[in-house]
From TrEMBL:
InterPro entries: Acyl-CoA_DH_CS (IPR006089), Acyl-CoA_Oxase/DH_mid-dom (IPR006091), Acyl-CoA_Oxase/DH_mid-dom_sf (IPR046373), AcylCo_DH-like_C (IPR036250), AcylCo_DH/oxidase_C (IPR009075), AcylCoA_DH/ox_N (IPR013786), AcylCoA_DH/ox_N_sf (IPR037069), AcylCoA_DH/oxidase_NM_dom_sf (IPR009100). It catalyses: glutaryl-CoA + oxidized [electron-transfer flavoprotein] + 2 H(+) = (2E)-butenoyl-CoA + reduced [electron-transfer flavoprotein] + CO2. Keywords: FAD, Flavoprotein, Oxidoreductase, Transit peptide. This is glutaryl-CoA dehydrogenase (ETF). Its cofactor is FAD. SUPFAM superfamilies: Acyl-CoA dehydrogenase C-terminal domain-like, Acyl-CoA dehydrogenase NM domain-like. The keyword Phosphoprotein does not apply. Pathway: Amino-acid metabolism; lysine degradation; Amino-acid metabolism; tryptophan metabolism. The lineage of its organism: Bacteria, Bacillati, Actinomycetota, Actinomycetes, Streptosporangiales. It comes from Haloactinospora alba. Its EC number is 1.3.8.6.
Amino acid sequence: MTDQRKASPPDPDDFLAVDGSLSGEERDIRDTVRGFGSRELLPHVAQWFDAGTIPEPRALAKSLGELGVFGMHLHGYGCAGASAVAYGLACRELEAVDSGLRSFVSVQGSLAMTAIHKFGSEEQKETWLPRMAAGDVIGCFGLTEPDSGSDPGSMRTSARRDGDGWVLNGTKMWITNGSIADVAIVWAGTEDGIRGFLVPTDTPGFTANTVHRKLSLRASITSELVLEDVRLPEEALLPGASGLGAPLSCLNEARYGIVWGAAGAARACYRAALDYATTREQFGGPIAGFQLTQRKLADMLVDVNQAGLTALQIGRLKDQGACHHNHVSFGKFSCVAAAQRVARLARSVHGANGITLEYPVMRHMANLETVATYEGTEEIHALSLGQAVTGVSAFR
């Protein structure tokens, strides 16, 4: 029998040694992205959140392109072809800084670039993907509409044939990167069903309006897209995308990044609470010595490590080609809820200080309200899991 007394005490930052099972290459990617986040992003993100924008998004895109995280899970066309776990680790480290920054990368790589990579022609791939991977071109993904969120099949944006081209009309809402994008992937209803289109944002009739006064995901640029008689050539059509399953498959890639990202936000809040509890003194000692505080830290510790294990297992399944979309729903549903619990507890450990931007917990707490809503609401994923285990759909 193994003598348990020889085991090393658990690491407070990786209690169940989740990262202990990573390969050398995966650890290198983790450390590279974590280092970039600590040096280049964390010193500024509270100011960006306070201002409600990213002041120099193109400079940020170029830096992220040089880091290699745009479309890093894709193969060819300037993309790294990294494993699913490696991409997940990058998302975790970015969201440990801020959800808005991970969203910047997810929308570019998992939505816009993935749509082109999966469904585009060879010419479209060669034209757009290398420049997007480098951060020289920014993309966005137009699926959600003002009256069509959880039910994208009811979209009103339309595309009709006109001679040898197309004319698009409609409105898209809650589009990350919309007003800074060079190209938009727009989904529209046609007489043959839902199709995807590559829309250069300088096309006449295309307008992007930035959404202001957000209380969440403020270090991110969110937009409304308006298409008024936008004329496109036949070559703008994504030839391999037909039906609602095409955009939903891209969303599943973005949701996978959220699974890891939520684990990163949870870890950041837990670490901030642990640091604060061990240094903040009240009643003659650190508040970490109080039973109620230790219970909060224990609850956070469990949620952080369970979220990390969930993300890693789904990543391993994905790398094995065995990840069903319901696995990703499980991850988004469970990891985001865990991160929300951790953020709330971490805020309470900080007391009044927790509501300021001097500490990260309230910023993460607010961001996670958006994370729980986009790429499928908590309720939608609960119903997806219910259908998976019962075989009965509750959607209609």
